[in-house]
Amino acid sequence: MATAVFECARTFEEKSCSIKIIGEHDDVVSAAHDHLVSHGLTEGDALRKKVTAAVEEHQTKYGIWGH
């Protein structure tokens, strides 16, 4: 299963923020968009496109037993 990851410190805007958002792709994009708006960026489609480009996909197994 792929897990989406957004690291605020790796974005073009906020180098000093330590927030990392992990989850399903659409949830991560939405939460990351809202998080960047909390930094003062203008919400909207342009920001959502930048966030979508910044989200990374990782293959992750949930749980300590890999289920």
Overview of this protein structure:
The chain is of the alpha+beta class and 67 residues long. 36% of the residues lie in helices and 21% in strands. The protein has two helices and three strands, in the order E-E-H-H-E. A three-stranded antiparallel β-sheet has the order 2-1-3. The longest helix has 14 residues, at 25-38. It is globular. 12% of the residues are buried. The mean pLDDT is 85.
Helices and strands in order, then pairings?
Layout lengths: L1 E6 L12 E4 L1 H14 L6 H10 L1 E4 L8
Antiparallel strand pairs: 1-2, 1-3
Helix pairs in contact: 1-2
Counting helices, strands and paired strands, the structural category is alpha+beta
Q: Specify Rg, calculated over alpha carbons.
A: 13 Å
- Overall average pLDDT: 85
Helix percent reads 25-40%
Rounded to the nearest angstrom, the distance between the terminal CA atoms is: 10 Å
User: Could you give the order of strands across the largest sheet?
Assistant: 2-1-3
Secondary structure tally, helices: 2
- Largest sheet, described in full? 3 strands, antiparallel
What is the N-to-C order of secondary-structure elements (H for helix, E for strand)? EEHHE
